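Reference record
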Amino acid sequence: MPKPNMYQSLHTTLIAKNGQPFEIQIRTFEMHRTAEYGIAAHWKYKERGSGDTTVRDEEAKLSWLRQILEWQKDVSDNKEFISMVKNDLDLFSDNVYCFTPQGDVKNLPAGSTPIDFAYSIHSAVGNRMKQAAVNGKMVPLDYKIQNGDRIEIFTSQNVKGPSRDWLNIAKSTQAKNKINQWFKQEGRAGNITRGKELVASCAKGKGFEISDLTKPEFTKKVITKYGFRDWDSILAAVGHGGLKEGQIVNKLIDLYQESKKKAPTDEQVLASVIENNKNKPVKIRSTNGVLVNGVVDVNVRFSRCCSPVPGDEIVGFITRGRGISIHRTDCVNVIALPESEKSRLVDVEWQQESFHSNEKFMAEIKIFCNNRIGIFADISKIFTEREIDIASMSSKTSKQGTATINMSFEVGGVDALQQLINRLMAVNSVIDIERSNG
């Protein structure tokens, strides 16, 4: 991708072992000639043909070409100078050369307009352009720039931005890209709304609810696949036409159907329990320190209603779509299960490793005490001494002055929990302590 002056080179910066940065430039021989001699190198290289000229002849030609550039100092009219050079060298057939009010040269594609000129200066100039003047006279924005024109751009803060019609007027790719970029950024909110509607409509047409397809685990993979920052950016791209809603929806459907194949249904889990328990029970390890009898490939999680810890008597309950939840056997939710639901219970037990690992488990207790000043400080001190972090703590006091303190925290097992309870029972004013059981 050569620059307008035909310069080409691959640049990269490396860091030496001593931390010193240095730049590498990679060029072909022809690219190097352009870098050394500028646009004249193309004419020089082209004229070689099969017979090589002497170094003296080549340098003489280059010296003559440089002398032409000196003519500009003696020519007051820009058009006269460009015309004179163009007649001597056929180098400018595909470009037009014009000037800024300060005299800087701008190289634009032939047929360019003031819109192209404005965006060649800066995106902000193009986006805020109101009018243009050529050689001191106002011109329409579709004016075709001529060699030697001196162009001045007038901007205004009241201009909201470019018009979509400018895409048909602009000639240069640079200007068109910057106009499109403005519409992408300024119209982002509208593009997101439109993209959301297109994706939802496409999903409905394929027989899917958009809420089923746009779960975080699916959208995250689509974001990664197409290299966007977030889901709104995907929707914005669909809204302005950068992505087709069909390709996004099809990918979401593939991910949704793939997840359905991986996750067994409640009926499949129950069938697995019944079938496996007909034979010798097979104990399957889980990542939660629990052995499950007769069930394979099922997620295990600890119920928050009774907060079991290693050492408690436990039982597993097959939940709807969330694997097996582990409860204490004295949990009121397990005890109150209707007969129709008891078929979902499965035998589980703690792995021996659970009693010797550093893993922590959430526990909840209720402390009943006579309310007094300093009771919270005394209780908190015990937790601090045992280096136990309190996850949550709340209390309420009855009219009779009896306080109920609810606490949740992490412990290693039932033995550590019992030691903590014994220590808390020794606190002045504490009446009783119970574990939460649902």
